[in-house]
TrEMBL record:
The species this protein was found in: Caenorhabditis japonica
Active site per the UniProt annotation: D123
Lineage, opening ranks: Eukaryota, Metazoa, Ecdysozoa, Nematoda, Chromadorea
Protein origin, superkingdom: Eukaryota
Name used for this protein in its record: Protein kinase domain-containing protein
InterPro entries referenced in this protein's UniProt entry, alphabetically: Kinase-like_dom_sf, Non-receptor_tyrosine_kinases, Prot_kinase_dom, Protein_kinase_ATP_BS, Ser-Thr/Tyr_kinase_cat_dom, Tyr_kinase_AS, Tyr_kinase_cat_dom
A molecular function (GO) term: metal ion binding
Residues engaged in binding ATP: K27, R127
Amino acid sequence: MLGEGAFGGVYRATFYVKGERKPVAVKVNKGNEKISTRNMIEDVCKEARIMRQYQHPNVVYFYGVCVEKEPIMLVMELANQGALDSFLKNEKNSVTLRDKLKYSLDASKGLEYLHQHGCIHRDVAARNFLMHKSVVKITDFGLSKQLSDLAHKYKLKDIQAKLPIRWLAPEVMVTATYTFKSDVYSFGILLWEIFMDGASPYPGMKLAEVRVKVKSGYRMDAPDRMPTFARNIMINQCWPQAPEDRGNMTEIRSSMESVLDGKVTAMGVRSMYMKT
Ligand code: ATP
């Protein structure tokens, strides 16, 4: 077993594609009957067809879904280093600043790709990125997200209790409507997590306090070791209160790339520590 989420267990398995053996990860639904109504299965298959078209080095590849009988299973690319949040925590003594910059760029490319294909992720957070051979890949989008939302809904009386408050844009707390720009806000929280070795955002603050403060414009301080250009992206392009004042993922990816592309020398990184 690789891990467990609301939807169910995630297992390592072997998938045969055109005579070739492929190691894959399979998410197995815990078996909530309500998930498998006929309409639901049609929706699941429709979404699965869309997701199979997504192919990008920073997006976890989705092979397909088994809906013939319970339990529903989602088959996806296997990531050998697991979830980014636990990786950052466990490897904090070996992950360098250069690695963190590279993980941030990988993540921005994956999210940009989803946005270019019209997919709003709605749960951008380090736990929803996986590491494979030191490449960061976005996961838990589309079908996977819809099914885990459903699982939460049936499991918990109060759906609010499971909302990822610490990652939510202020307008989503009010309107419950997600947009590309609310993903951009959450991407800023992801940058904070990366430069804080996978720590949980708003340390020491309760959820109710986070909700009230973020709605009235409060933001976390940038991590000490975050390079200036990355903190500028986080604060000025991801975290403005008004969604229209935020950048889009293409602008954010391109700002990161222009600084990082072949320019991350030890000297460069050191000079990037300087605060503005
Ligand atoms: P939720 O079900 O609410 O979305 P979650 O995102 O924590 O919760 P899952 O996406 O079900 O849960 O994943 C649970 C764990 O399984 C992850 O934290 C990760 O360690 C492991 N995992 C998930 N997908 C893969 C994969 N493709 N390759 C390797 N490990 C995976």
